[in-house]
Design brief:
51% helix, two-stranded antiparallel sheet, alpha+beta
Length: 81
């Protein structure tokens, strides 16, 4: 059984695919959320007592995060076809 937290891909550059170069991309929605919002703001989360902490951390980037999550889910479905 393989965990699908990471996607391996080969980048293309100017129409050429490098057979040696492999890149890794984190695709798990929970881990992406943790590294984008929680890990960066641990100190703010620990000391903040305001009611609107979530909105102050995510700001305008939350829609971008949801879009990326949707895109990653579509890529996973595409692999199943």
């Amino acid at each position: 059984m393989r965990a699908d937290f990471v996607q391996v891909y080969q980048p293309t550059q100017m129409g050429k695919t490098s057979l040696r170069t492999k890149k890794y991309k984190l695709t798990d929605p929970f881990l992406l959320f943790y590294f984008w919002y929680i890990k960066r703001n641990k100190k703010m989360i620990a000391v903040n007592r305001s009611e609107n902490l979530f909105r102050s951390i995510t700001g305008k980037n939350l829609n971008q995060y949801f879009g990326l999550g949707y895109f990653n889910q579509i890529l996973k479905l595409e692999d199943l076809l």
